[in-house]
Amino acid sequence: MSRYRIGIDVGGTFTDLYLHDMETGEVARHKLLSTPERPHLAPLQGIREIMKQVGGKGSQVAFVGLGTTVMTNALLERKGATTGLITTAGFRDLLEIARQKRPHTFDPFVSKPDPLVPRQLRVEVAERIAADGSVLIPLDSQSLEQAIDHLLNAGVEAIAVCFLNSYANPTHEQQTADVLRRRWRSGHVAVSTDVLPEFREYERLSSTIVNAYLMPVTRGYLRQFKAEVAALDIPQPPFVMNSGGGIMTPEQASERPIDTLFSGPSGGVSGAVYVSAGAGHRDIITFDMGGTSTDVCLVQDAKAQVSHARVINGVPLRATALDVHTVGAGGSSIATIDAGGMLRVGPHSAGAYPGPACYMQGGKRPTVTDANVVLGRLNPKYLLGGELEIDAERSFAAIEEHIAKPRNISVVEAAASIIALADTNMAHAVRFVSVERGLDPGDFVLVAFGGAGPVHAASVARQLGIARVLIPPAPGVLCAMGVLVKDLQMDFSRTRVCRERSDDCNKLVDSVYRELEQRARSALANGKPELSLTRTADVRYVGQNHELTVDVPSEPFDDGSLTAVKDNFHAAHRELFGYASEEKLLELVTFRVNARLAVERAELAPPSDALQERGISPIVVRKAYFDEAGGFAACSVFERGALRPSDTIKGPAIVEQMDATTVVPPDFDARVDELGNLILQKG
Amino acid sequence: MAHAQVEIIAAAFEAATQEMAASLVRTAFSPNIKERADCSTAICDASGRALSLMTHAPAHLGSTLRLVDAILKRFPLETLGPGDAFLANDPYIVGVTHLNDCTVAMPVFHDGRVVAFAAAVAHHSDVGGRVAGSESGDNTSIYQEGIRVPPVQIYVGGVQRADVIELFLLNSRMPHYGEGDLMAQMASCVRGSARVQELFTKYGYDTMLTRIDEILDSTERRIRSRIRSELKEGTYSAVDWLDEDGVTDTKVKLAVTLTVKDGHLTVDLSESSRQLASGKNVPLTHSYATAYFCLKSIVDPFIPTNEGLYRTVSIVAPEGLVVNPVAPAAVSSRNMTSMILAEALTNALGQAAPSRAVAAGGPGQGCISVGTAPVTGRYFINYENLAGGQGARCTADGMDVVMINMTNTSNLPIEAMELEFPLRIERYELVCDSGGAGKFRGGLGVLRDMRLLADNASASLRSARQRFPAPGLAGGKPGGLGSFIRNPGAPNETRLGLTTSGTPLGNGDVLRIVTPGGGGHGDPSERDPEALKRDLVEGKVSERAVRELYGVTPT
User: Fold this and answer.
1) Is pLDDT above 90 for B510?
2) Burial status of residue B450 (CB atoms within 10 A of its CB: 0-12, 13-18, 19 or more)
3) Exposed, middle or buried by CB within 10 Å (0-12, 13-18, 19+), for B209?
4) Residue A673 pLDDT more than 80?
């Protein structure tokens, strides 16, 4: 009876749904407006509407997965809870002192963000743990009670607890949490050694506070969503997507909202990895270009790199997330001529509002999108499959006034210059991500999605020596699809600095991994054997201050495991930095366990149409500009929905669909593969 | 047809130096580069003009001004070959700003000729000399500041000159950092070199030379045009003071007379103090870096750094001044002096552009603590710089506890320090009332107590604004003073000197560092009552200050 699986992606503006019918293999997609004021409404409405679309019942739904930016937006818009902090005496200002850097080295007028917890809600208690975990000053229960009184009287909704060196000995934090839970049953409490038992106090403190700040919002939202899903007769409770490329239960997400903050970009990457791996491409670079920003992620052997440190609007976070690099440029980036006569694209953006000049919402400055319109690459009358009417004349006028006239060149030349520079900037960004890992982008397939990705992908690929570009069937709802292909997954970590050749190194490492795996089992599987556990460790040379994360063989940890870790570290160091110093001693610093529980799912089936070569005809022919064609050339425009596997298209051509436009330059060919992906190949 | 070719090539140079910098920071060994990114990377053309310079440390803005020239004087262009690389660190010869800034440079070949140089400058933790860390305000000559290296060849045709590298490392107290950092600099240059070769291969030699001229001219045009639109033409003067010269108690004058005319800045420093018998002298290239920094931050923070920017600033400073010393004057502690120079310059620029005026701030206070860990017997050096408060801006309060002007480096994580070194941090907090009162308040400084748990421990200290506070602007009040105190509150409490090297600290002693706050901007009585109330609730301003400085009765 359970036949439908539904993935949902709640964005700031739109909510996307992707439904997979496991009986027929068919898929359905749906898009509706988000409801930021009551965020659980849009996904529920979406479920109702997409079920109506396929004529199914709630009781037939096997799986609902929710990717959501609600928590991210609450942080960005500072709409989280009134939060208090309990910390070590002498250190309540750590949050404001931070790393003492000003946000912009060269502009003294750029300010730091206000701290999430104001000074009067940061209270100190007498206690102190040493770096080796020993207790220097025992936790003073009287000062703790006073601290709690102060915060509760001030009306806080959440409390973060973070003591110095607690990663080495969490006892005082746990005692504090016990007292808090006893005195404040209804309260939201985040304890640093639960959120992130790793060293470096400021980053742990900041992460713990963000978690506390978002707990009330998250719990209310997910509790309501879960109840309403049940009310639709859907037998299984929903899952929530996390930043690390997995899913978690609403209860887990409510305890750890910090793990959901980058789930949007991660969802896109997961979807991209899934469709590409299905088509046989395991080494890819994802290129998700939207209106205001572009996300790039490097994927080797169908595994996205993972990072542990991120910054969101000046607030540092340490939480596991796919290593997505964001560049502040997209279709709405504004082109200007600077005071020296140089063309610049970005960093200013017209955003979604007023947006590009052609949107007719009052935007007067020319954007990358306007340049694409002038060059005939985007439809001159409408975008979004007809939902957004545009005026090409305004693109033309904006580029003429701001770029062509000051430079004394034609509007077409100006537009071509904007695109050339925008593509170059994108290519540099993609290259930066790959060379940072010591890799050559030419060995990868570029997977383009987001509204603007497929427009620019071929040109960016050409500059990077990338021969092949893949455009998924639904490049605009990839995140919603990504939710359907995830496993239940959580990450656990602990810092215990352990120097190679020290006496009890192996024993210590072994006990840390056992403890982490125990935590994983009780959190995820209730002891189920099918839980898959992967060990990694952050390792460095003694004296180095940054670590590399490397694989660690499964238990028990002995000299052989240590040798394997060393080999992995030296290899990784060589790959990243070009050298390794094998004679130097290593330090194992932070130990990590990734736990994964496979969720039952059917594979997404290819479209059932028989594969055959056939002639296809364009819906229209329009002129589009390409340097490679020496100017404007007649360009066939195809409707993506009409394309079938094995169809081939010679560039120059344009493929339009509701959520994206794909540009096939003259030196590229496009072919539809068996799964419906559009593969652009350099001729 | 080539669209936007100049822009695309300019972007490629910037991307190349960015890539070089990322590579350098990630591969380096010493915390000073890894954690604090105290380094810069550059591409220069064959005649030494900077085509792109990338740095997070403004002190490095002029780090390649004389580099190529100094190399070519000793190793003529026609004698260079692919795979060669050079090392240099002498401020009087190559123009880096102190001996710690060791520079690696590599000629870039295209079609058998040198078309460019890739350079990576990195602050090495120790290059020998009188004190650990090599920098000290009370050095009396450059011979006390470490090994002086003119341009020497460290790679010949891709083969390492092990003898030269050994000589260099033998002079360091931290050779393992030195070696790792040097290799990271090499890797960075190799990467930059490859990027430049790609460009020359793609566009050809002649086109590249034309485009390079156009790039530099365009930056020059841009900054000139910004100077014309942002700054009122005229002559503006400002004076600020360094507390003392590092040897005697004499204060040091930093005097600026700025003339803005025809999109050009002439910075006359002739009225500044004579060169000092201490390490607080500022080499001329560093004075230039200071001027470039102030110009950028007040007039055009986003302008790319290249030769075009350099063309719009001239400094008038006769030899023998604190801002243009003659060898063998010591220069290792030049940064504190250049901070105050930057304040005077910012003040003068603010007079020319009142909408971008920023009051003087509290520069970071430096502390190098050394000692031996009692258990392991291991020697350690802990190099730190603690931020003060930013001066109030004409539109907003100064930021609390941020690095200002010529530096923007982070503090070290307490937990990392306590793990690594035999010391313990006991307090780290904002200093109430240290921000100068004003319509916009100056940023607060901090107080930090550190207990040494080491044997044979000592501290070398550097400071500014412990005697003369950051002055306010437009009616704003001065910021709080900094101080160094040993064992505060104990019977043997001692106020330490403003510039010291090797001040002994017993095992168990506490070293308190208080950093200065920023000056205020505007009349305190005009402060928004809401902002004042928030300050009071947050404990950033005391009731007494509210009454006495702001003239308001707290409710």
Assistant:
1) yes
2) buried
3) middle
4) yes
**Which of A111, A344, A546 shows the shortest C-beta gap to B34?**
A546
- Interface mutation vs chain A, best among B302, B419, B449, B450, most A CBs within 10 Å: B419
Instruction: Tell me which chain B residues have a C-beta less than 8 angstroms from the C-beta of A497.
Output: 419
Please judge whether B6 and A342 are an interchain contact, meaning their C-beta atoms are less than 8 angstroms apart. Answer: yes
Rounded (5°) CA angle B1-B4-B10: 130
CB B264 within 8 A of CB B224: yes
| B-proximal residues of A, 40-99, CB under 8 Å | 90-94, 96-99
Length of chain A, in residues:
683
- Compute the distance between CA of residue A578 and CA of residue A600 in angstroms, rounded to an integer: 42
Phi-psi region of B107 (alpha: psi -120 to 50; beta: other; left: phi over 0): beta
What pTM was computed for the model? 0.90
Contact B187, B111 (CB under 8 A): no
Distance between start and end Cα atoms, chain A = 48
Spell out the SS3 assignment of A532-573. EEEEEEEEEECCCCCCEEEEECCCCCCHHHHHHHHHHHHHHH
For residue A642, give the 3-state DSSP assignment: helix
Q: Are strands A61-68 and B152-156 parallel, antiparallel or unpaired?
A: unpaired
Task: Establish if A583 touches chain B: CB-CB under 8 angstroms.
Answer: no
Nearest to B428 among A90, A339, A435 (CB): A90
Q: What is the pLDDT of residue A529?
A: 64
Interval A79-123: pLDDT, tens: 999 999 999 999 999 999 999 999 999 999 999 999 999 999 999
- Report yes or no for ipTM above 0.85: yes
Query: Mind listing the domains of chain A with CATH numbers?
Result: 4-75+219-260 (3.30.420.40), 80-212 (3.40.50), 488-597 (3.30.1490), 620-682 (no CATH)
| Residue that is written with structure tokens 């495991």 in the block | A561
CA distances from A248 to A39, A256, A535 (A): 19, 10, 19
Taking an 8 Å cut-off on Cβ atoms, the answer to whether A340 and B10 are in contact is no
Residue position matching structure tokens 């007292």: A179
C-alpha B223/C-alpha B303 separation (Å) is 8
pLDDT-derived band of residue A607, with 50, 70 and 90 as boundaries? low
Rounded to a whole number of angstroms, the distance from the CA of A382 to the nearest CA of chain B is 27
Q: Euclidean distance between the first and final Cα of chain B, in Å? A: 72
As a whole number of angstroms, the distance between CA B32 and CA A168 comes to 26
The answer to whether B522 and B440 have CB atoms below 8 angstroms apart is yes
Distance from CA of A66 to the nearest CA of B (A): 36
- What is the mean predicted confidence (pLDDT) over A153-157? 97
Closest CA to A443 of A268, A299, A576, A654: A299
DSSP B149-170: --SEEEEETTEE-HHHHHHHHH
Structure tokens at B467: 């005697």
Nearest Cβ partner of A108 from B6, B297, B430?
B297
Question: Nearest CA to B483 among B470, B467, B504, B506?
Answer: B467
Nearest to A347 by CA among A270, A425, A280, A415: A425
Phi, psi at A622, each rounded to 5°: -135, 165
Using CA atoms, how far apart are residues B444 and B432, in angstroms rounded to an integer? 7
Model confidence pLDDT, tens digit, residues B444-483: 999 999 999 999 999 989 999 999 999 999 999 999 999 9
DSSP A643-664: --TT-EEESSEEEEETTEEEEE
- A627/B426 CB distance under 8 A: no
Chain A positions in Cβ-Cβ contact with residue B19 (cut-off 8 Å): 431-432, 435
Cross-chain Cβ contact A425/B184 below 8 Å: no
* β-bridge mates for residue B446, sequence order: B430
- B281's tokens: 């002298």
